[in-house]
Amino acid sequence: MTFQTLTKHLHKDSNTLAHIIQTYAKSKQLSKGKLLHAQLITSGYPSCTYLTNHLLSMYGRCGQLGYAHKLFDEMPQRILVSWTAMISGFSQNMEFLKAITTFCKMWVCGESPNEFAFSSVIQACSSLKSVQIGKQIHCLALKVGFSYELFVGSNLADMYSKCGLMVEACMVFEEMPSKDEVSWNSMIDGYAKNGYNEEALVAFNKMLIEDVRIDQHLLCSALCACGAYKAFNFGRCLHSFVVKLGFNLHVSVGNALTDMYCKLGDMDSGSRFLEIDSRDTNIVSYTSLIDGYVETEQIEKALTIFVELKRLGIEPNEFTFSSLIKACANHAALEQGSQLHALVLKYNLDQDPFVSSIVVDMYGKCGLLDDSIQAFEKISKASEYTWNSLVGVFAHHGLGKEAIDVFNRMVVQNLKPNAVTFYKLSIHSISRSSLSSRNGSLPLNSITHFLTLTLPPSALLSIDYLEGSQVNQTKSLISAVSFTT
């Protein structure tokens, strides 16, 4: 049956046509969907908002936002479903700013959002880490009565946790009248990724008591927390629980198990688990193993695993190289580091922010300052990590003035130094070079502007300033900066 015959027979049955469009959307059969849309136009099928909304959803799901936007603009009448389809389409296709803009336009046009529109726009805020806009949307959700809805609440908790606001995330979560595995995973994963690993494991225990359905995402988050918190006994029990539920066959859970044992320093279990599940081994598991060997100072074993990767035909990624080059930097292993750098260039990973920063750091720690600078200059758009590495390299070589010059260039480009940068500057640039405020030391106003750290490094900075006889600067720094603990 041709599409023309189909549309002729279904002339009065828009529900059936909508079902067909929905099927094409779910199966991502874009070409068939476009053909059906074309037949509807050429056959003179009467335009209706109901079918247009399904077409909007199909184009959005298939990533054809240009078609969706054109169709949306041509609609004589838009209803809530139309707006929601566009917001969802933008959010699903990583056009997050457009999702937020469309949501605002919808509100200005007098259309009150539903839970699906709220969920999509909150996901967009979460991806952009636009917590201020997210808070305004949260207020709006409270106003129209959707903040406690399951999907909206879960996305709000996820947004706050991804923006590092765990207090707000916890408040949203506790106020939700009902919670599912997605809600719990937002909290457990949020706790783990923000360094609250003990809280993540406590939340996991509470979830078990409430008899929430377990999925692989929850288990991965809990295993990650176990590794970071060094909860060996809990991790072993969780491993048994994973096997009992049959989730050890999931690739993502297997990766998480390998990573957990490696972070716990139990390299025998980590490597043994990898051997048992070798049928599904991938670069994630091998990188966890390499990282584990690096952290336990077993560099030769890490390099052996890397050679094994090449034999198996598994392509290394940016995390693999970052871990190995970091090991070479810490051990001043120039020969191996240079060879890895050559492979980084081969795999076109030299512009990756983490890899490039570690390459700069590696050459600096191996004593090759010129090579370090050259590696930095070849980066088309240096990230804050790479700039921080360059500051550290100059500081490591006792070139205090040059380190502070790089720091000031970072400030001009609105890039944020990290805790390690200030530590290196304070130890090497100020203490060793004895730079004072008269000849260009680290400007206090720059420190107070950028130093929004969660760790309390004031003690380190105080000691290092005192070593350089900078007592007054120490007192000013401590009084000027509010550290959160």
From TrEMBL:
It comes from the Eukaryota. This is Uncharacterized protein. It comes from Arctium lappa (Greater burdock).
